[in-house]
Specification:
Helix content: 55-70%
Strand content: under 5%
Shape: globular
Mean pLDDT: 90
Number of strands: 5
Strand order of the largest sheet: 2-1-3-5-4
Oligomer: single chain
Structural class: mainly alpha
Number of helices: 27
């Protein structure tokens, strides 16, 4: 994980399309905030309306470094550090479930979490999952309570202690939501289910209000900011209740469909394909890389839950253990149900389940290791499991994963520019032919204004000209409307595509735009997914590329086209 976290963003991992979310908003938004001098509204990037607590931490790092472009590795190493601390919190959780201090159960819990490839993948990218894992594991450990040998274990807790417990848990859960919005479903609700089982009802009236008040206060940076920007504290959610800001009804519906639940049937299939037997049954024709990143943990975790619940209870301690395990089991099942029924049910979103399952596995294996016969089998199995992330790593990028360390110049176009500077004209032509958009955009005059169509991950692209605060590129995420969507939405569908293309060019020229960079591959992906704005009709995109109102400045090997729309100078 530490080695992978030193790779330039965009190089790893195949299942995350090079960390697309980081290039699109986890890193890109702090970059824009840094140039703006603080957290500002980004109407072109819908993810700026999400809580963004971890992205704000990245902004702090960029401020310390003094340059967003060179802080990306630091952001990834920060996440790796949070993942290690999350493993320590998972060890605390395993001890709380066991009800006693035990170095063995701590070690197994940490290994079980860190031997899960998904944890290593997200723990080496500038993502927010590691922070959520840490907050949930810590909150669950506090709710269950410290091991019996520690004074103050819940039982006859004093009112003041209950209020303190509620405040601490509220802070942890509120921070989880501030880190990732889906924690409201996948962390807060399961934690409430756990608390309902392990904490006596007579204490709820003291704990619940403290948890709710502190949790809401922890979320205020997001709620107040969004209220100020949009009039809706949780935008782009709950739009029917709080309003849609400047989004159209079509935008709201498209966003809701893409992020909403799948229903029982589709959710059940997702449970098998995305979690239990992750990536073993990819859909026919899928071009996604096959990476079983959940590996062994879901099956082992659910099996451990069943073993702990079904074995007979012979003493008070074992009944207490069953109650604690039952609480974790209820939390886990509620999390799975919420994931399958109320989200788009992608494997990575279920990562909050990892600490819960790792703790259960640790408790079962700890008991088995107390016997002589299975010790060797368990030791071998543990080593094999611990090697799973290494296999995921060495097979990524066709075995070239380590070559991603220190290759920023290859991704941001500066390496090609350096080669061009010392090349002959024919050699320079060949270099440009194989270059990506970053190289060609860096060669444009400083006064150029470029609109990106189909590109929403501009982390490695140049963003400003002479004025560091003025964006050189204009992009928009798939859920928001940029100048192309707004212009074409105002042109009736019945208008000939060629006329619509000319109308777009004229409108963009009036806004000072000089170039359009069209990426048809991503437009097609968005269209197949049902995410693309209906104003961007394929016929209009083809007509734009073929229009006599533009000239093709460059064709890229992946099918993208850089269009020059600046009018010819008068003779």
């Amino acid at each position: 994980m530490l080695l992978a976290s030193t790779s330039t963003p965009g190089w790893l991992w195949g299942t995350e399309f090079g960390g697309y979310d980081a290039l699109s908003y986890h890193l890109q938004l702090p970059r824009e905030w840094w140039f703006a001098g603080g957290l500002v509204e980004t109407p072109h990037n819908a993810y700026g309306y999400l809580p963004g607590g971890v992205s704000a931490a990245f902004l702090h790092l960029m401020t310390v470094v003094g340059d967003p472009g060179t802080a990306d590795i630091g952001c990834q190493v920060l996440v790796a550090g949070l993942t290690v601390i999350a493993a320590i919190a998972t060890a605390d959780l395993a001890e709380s479930v066991l009800g006693a201090h035990d170095r063995r159960v701590r070690a197994i819990a940490m290994v079980a979490l860190l031997a899960t490839p998904w944890v290593i993948v997200t723990g080496s990218l500038a993502y927010d999952e590691a922070f959520v894992l840490l907050m949930l594991a810590a909150a669950a450990a506090r709710l269950i309570g410290p091991p019996a040998s520690v004074p103050g274990r819940p039982g006859g807790a004093a009112p003041r202690a209950d209020i303190a417990l509620g405040a601490v848990v509220g802070l942890l859960l509120g921070a989880a939501v501030l880190g990732k919005a889906s924690s409201g479903l996948l962390v807060v609700l399961p934690a409430a289910a756990l608390a309902a089982v392990v904490i006596p009802p007579r204490r709820w009236l003291r704990i619940v209000p403290a948890t709710a008040v502190v949790g809401v206060v922890a979320c205020l940076p997001w709620l107040v900011r969004n209220w100020d920007w949009t009039g809706n504290p949780v935008f782009p959610f709950a739009t029917a209740l709080f309003g849609t800001h400047d989004w159209t009804a079509e935008q709201v519906d498209r966003f809701a469909r893409a992020h909403g639940g799948l229903g029982w049937s589709a959710g059940g299939r997702a449970f098998a394909a995305e979690f239990l037997l992750h990536d073993l049954f990819l859909p026919e024709g899928s071009n996604e890389p096959r990476r079983p990143q959940w590996s062994w943990l879901p099956i082992a975790g659910l099996a451990a839950l069943a073993v702990l619940l079904l074995r007979p209870t012979t003493a008070e301690g074992s009944r207490d253990l069953r109650r604690r395990v039952g609480g974790l089991g209820l939390a886990l099942l509620l999390m799975l149900a919420a994931w399958a029924l109320a989200t788009h049910a992608k494997a990575r979103f279920l990562l909050p389940a990892a600490p819960l399952m790792a703790a259960l596995v640790a408790v079962v294996l700890r008991d088995l290791l107390r016997r002589d016969r299975p010790r060797l089998v368990i030791a071998v199995a543990a080593w094999v499991a611990a090697l799973a992330p290494a296999w995921i790593y060495v097979t990524d990028r066709d075995g070239l994963a380590p070559q991603g360390v220190g290759v920023r110049a290859l991704l941001d176009g500066t390496a090609d520019l350096d080669r061009i500077a010392v090349s002959t004209d024919p050699e320079a032509i060949e270099i440009r032919r194989g270059s990506g958009p970053a190289t060609l955009l860096r060669e444009l005059p400083e006064e150029s204004e470029v609109v990106l169509l189909g590109i929403a991950d501009p982390w490695h692209l140049p963003m400003s000209g002479d004025d560091p605060g003025a964006p050189r590129l204009r992009y928009s995420t798939v859920w928001t409307r940029g100048p192309v969507e707004r212009t074409w939405a105002g042109i009736p569908d019945a208008v000939d595509p060629r006329s619509a293309a000319r109308g777009l060019v004229e409108g963009l020229r009036g806004e000072g735009v000089t170039h359009i960079l069209v990426a048809p591959t991503m437009l097609e992906v968005w269209s197949r997914s049902g995410w693309l704005d209906p104003a961007i009709a394929p016929a209009r995109v083809r007509a734009l590329v073929e229009s006599d109102a533009v000239s093709i400045a460059h064709r890229f090997l992946d099918g993208a086209v850089l269009l020059d729309i600046a009018p010819e100078p008068a003779p």
